[in-house]
């Protein structure tokens, strides 16, 4: 080999090359699945957070009663036949529980996986509905005077923890409570039982509602930092609970909306079953004002979050507005409770007999009495006419035989003089007889005014 000469290239030998593995086919699909999962859960969370639509309590009652005799719930016929007092209340209670179980997403308060895990507005709303359902359950057990078996079972089922997810879960207990109310509704549908006709049942329920709304007002006010605003609400600052954390403000707000939603339907059911009692107590205006306040508390929230501003600042204070509605609703509920206490439903049987044969008998007796009175009046009138004619003839004969008969004016005969001197007895006799008898139009049925004036 020359010292400075060029070297001949060595031949290429095969070598083992260590390649870096390509994991792109693994993590890219996984990342895509995670992104899709997050998008789907966010969309479901937004949909599940929508408040369910309201329902008509009379329609719900007909549907619930129709399902009692039908095996196919979807094709159940409507049952509008007469039922015992309280059927609309029980059916509304059942529909509230069905709403908690069957709304979009189902019952979310005890969810342990997304999206229910990170949702808080709808679970708080569910808690508000559940609290009002519990209050109605306690009222039915304590004041209904019905068989306490099924009602007591429903109350105990609803009083459990609202966040249980192990067996028995909250959904399981709510379903069992609904089945217990179905037994009660079947008895009311067959008219084997009914709520009392007195206003003490709605009065007791409304008094409990007022206390619950007062407590809710204080909880909403605890998130308000402006003392002037609380002074306008007449809220005692010393009785407020601890300051609400910022991440709990929206939970209390949506719980209040859930209570207002449930109260609106329960109040409508109470009006349907106790409308006659409320009419006797003259409480329709209070009911309308209370319903208006509950509707105002459920107006659409256009803000994406619940704001907690102060005064006339840039941001609104949604908790303060809700506290104003709940406070007015509490006062109206308390006033309505006082108006209904002690008032009973008017009894129509006091004015007319329930048996048709008794009505016919009374009508016959009335006709017989009227005929007898008419005959007596005719006989008295004829006797008065005969007596007047006899007196006129006797007076004419006496004047003709008397010495001063020639002094009468020319052209005056004894018969003419008798006719001029005779009194109009028949007409006066008939007027006295008619004046002494009461007219049929002036007769008024006896009305018990104790129920109507109980509130005064």
From TrEMBL:
Comp. bias intervals (Polar residues): 349-362
UniProt xrefs under Pfam families: DUF2333 (PF10095)
Region (Disordered): 346-456
InterPro entries assigned to the protein according to its UniProt record, in alphabetical order: UCP029693
Keywords recorded for this protein, A-Z: Membrane, Transmembrane, Transmembrane helix
Taxonomic source organism: Onishia taeanensis
Name this polypeptide is given: DUF2333 family protein
Transmembrane segments: 30-50
Compositionally biased tracts (Low complexity): 363-446
The keyword ATP-binding is assigned to this record: no
